[in-house]
Design brief:
Two copies of one chain form a homodimer. Chain A is built from eight helices and 28 strands. Chain A has about 425 residues and is of the alpha/beta class. Chain A has four domains: about 170 residues, MoaB/Mog-like domain (Molybdenum Cofactor Biosythetic Enzyme, Chain A, 3-Layer(aba) Sandwich), CATH 3.40.980; about 60 residues, Molybdopterin biosynthesis moea protein, domain 2 (Alpha-Beta Complex), CATH 3.90.105; about 90 residues, Molybdopterin biosynthesis moea protein, domain 3 (Molybdopterin biosynthesis moeA protein, domain 3); about 70 residues, MoeA, C-terminal, domain IV (Beta-clip).
Chain lengths: ~425, ~425
């Protein structure tokens, strides 16, 4: 598929990619719970134990036979014999007998025979080692039963679940301190452009420092994936081709960021096509900024040719690479399936008229300001290639391809930067 | 301030903490840009260079004296002599003379003398090394001037700014590859309760595995801070007091999580008071779950006594510790100053009637389900102390202290878990 094809819409581009590429089953590894935050489970986790493992009191009070309290009231209290206390972290020394009460703290293990707990507030201890009870308790009252939290043999978590802080706690609770997780996706970053020098070097006239490796690596990390920096390459066929081949064998996907000159883009497309099958599948997407984006599949892995424009790199990452990396990660996000965005959005009113190029989905950086209890979105404009426009913006808003622009005062949804 | 004081509201509790504690200036360290994602700048960053450093073409085309193109049209084109080409990453070999045009790629450095670039599309090369131009260009057209992105001496970033991916790119662009950042806040986690054993140990009857260290450490990490696990302690004065003292000298804040029995809470309060000045400042907050939370200040550092209930730990973290850690971090969040929440929220309709305890701010875990194009929030209920309620929930919704509950069908804001 050599040569320029027509630019396609964003949705169409994703569809074409999907028809040529299906993420393989991710690799697995085992990690300790302390390293498992944000990782994706590679297998269902079945609880081997019930939780709690024993009946626990949910109150400070007295463990009793509930039947001994039936009918108790302030007028006619029930009287039970105090028969010791439950010590936290230990089983009761002996079972309870009818007519007895044993002091128990919240979380304490019920003595054998006891089936309920009377709250401290509804009791009074009397001198003779006797307990006065002024309210009845039903069987099971103020008791958490074994398995109330989770039962032995129950599925605690399913494959594809991303582990949140509370999930780590729950896994610890059932004694699962090592978990099988999918390996994190690796994205290779190949920076091309004869004008680019490493950021710590002083550029000569005509040269510029590497910007995109840093932005892209940060975006990859925030997406829970691993950036693999393959380095900076001059616009020469051989070394870039070698870097792409090595990246494909080593990583799950590849992103080349390049100068936005026609020559540079042609070189990227040629290399992807030469490595082929099918090679370039999308050449140009109707999105601003980012139109010249190239999408290819080589050796069963996606290869992206992103423009060199830093803003376009960020927009293309969010449109294509972020969802792709999430898919490769093996995560099944229940919220996403409900259409809940994985990013923060706010509603704001446009502070100015903004006219957009028709036929292209326009991703506009905006700065937010608060005024009159409302948020206002100010377009952050700048010539193509500027870096600090993205720094000044708090997020982006999308003007759909079929709209000529947004009028001042119109409401827009702003996707906040991570 | 010994003994039990009355439970206070959440806002009041934060106010009391603020009146007894002001975060000190955070420590500083220097990190490389590759490690700087999410870190907070400890100083303003001033650009030492203009960006770009030289006039760059923003188009593929020809560098010209703009005056040579004035009046050019399809009917009466301008003709210029082709005088070579600009190579990417290099300065032009010689300056341009009147009547000349030099080919230039996007991003290329303008030759001395040239003040504009004619787009490729508006030109045609003729046999005799001549270029035909059919549109005029104004001075500066299609050129990014030195300093258009940022000027030398301009403040690129201010102290307190948290570094996002695009910020790393911008810093690389101005050659700042090491940055001064504030040290991350450290929260010590002290797990108390005679019933608690490490998660990898098999509990004896009456014992339970440590859950809260894992949940809390995960929450601390997501907040960009460092959890320091001080271990598990039986309900005994001496060792816990020593752990708190060591934690205070080592960390920025301390969280004890404990059993929810009265004895355990009293021990925590006593230790905080004995280490004192002022010691316990809040004992009980009108929030559900989490009422018995203790807030103290010892040695100028905040010390929290959180209940042992895992859901309460998470709720108290979000209410008190997350904002505190953010304040300690030195971050100045422009969005927060506009009232934009740092977490994802969605709107949903309550799927059931839910009645709340009046006088307490009720943080209810909810599971979301999609139905009829709308999200429905199902309360995830369970006895106190259950762990998996938090696992089943997608987020929480708050029923204010002055509301008796929420009716089925009413709209609620759900704060999604990170």
């Amino acid at each position: 598929m050599l040569g320029r094809s027509k630019a396609v819409g964003v949705g169409e581009a994703l569809g074409i990619l999907r028809s040529h590429y299906t993420p393989p089953e991710p690799g697995r590894e085992e990690v300790s719970l302390h390293e498992a935050l944000g990782r994706v489970l590679a297998a269902d986790i079945i609880s081997q134990i019930p939780l709690p493992e024993f009946p626990r009191s949910s109150m400070d009070g007295y463990a009793v036979f509930s039947a001994d309290t039936f009918g108790a009231s302030e007028q006619i209290p029930a009287y039970l014999k105090l028969a010791g206390e439950v010590v936290m972290g230990e089983a009761a020394l002996h079972p309870i007998s009818h007519g007895e009460a044993i002091a128990i703290p919240t979380g304490g293990m019920l003595p054998d025979g006891a089936d309920a707990v009377v709250m401290l507030e509804h009791t009074q201890t009397l001198d003779a080692g006797e307990l006065e009870i002024i309210r009845p308790v039903a069987p099971g009252e103020n008791v958490v039963q074994p398995g109330d939290d989770i039962k032995a043999g129950e599925v605690a978590f399913t494959r594809g679940h991303m582990l949140r802080p509370q999930d780590l706690g729950a896994l610890a609770g059932i004694g699962t301190t090592r978990v099988p997780v999918f390996k994190r996706p690796k994205l290779a970053i190949i920076n091309t452009g004869s004008e680019i020098v490493p950021a710590d070097r002083t550029p000569r006239p005509g040269q510029v420092r590497d910007v995109n490796s840093y932005t892209l690596a940060g975006l990859v990390r925030l997406a829970g994936a691993i950036p693999v920096l393959k380095g900076i390459f001059r616009d020469e066929y051989g070394p870039i081709r070698e870097a792409v081949e090595s990246a494909i064998s080593e990583c799950d996907a590849v992103a080349l960021t390049g100068g936005s000159s026609v020559g540079n883009q042609d070189l990227t497309a040629k290399i992807i096509n030469d490595l082929g099958n099918p090679g370039v599948i999308v050449h140009g997407v109707s999105v601003k900024p980012g139109k010249p984006v190239i999408i290819g599949v080589v050796g069963g892995k996606p290869v992206f040719g992103l423009p060199g424009h830093p803003v376009a790199v960020a927009v293309c990452f969010n449109l294509f690479l972020r969802p792709l990396l999430k898919e490769i990660s093996g995560e099944i996000d229940p919220l996403e399936h409900m259409g809940i965005s994985g990013v923060r959005v706010v509603e704001a009113r446009m502070a100015r008229n903004y006219s957009s190029v028709p036929g292209r989905e326009d991703h506009l950086g905006v700065m937010l300001k608060k005024g009159d209890d409302e948020l206002w979105a100010y377009p952050v404009l700048g010539k193509s290639g500027l870096i600090f426009t993205l720094v000044k913006a708090h997020g982006t808003t999308v003007i759909p391809a079929d709209r000529p622009g947004i009028a001042k005062g119109e409401k827009v949804i702003v996707r906040l930067f991570d």
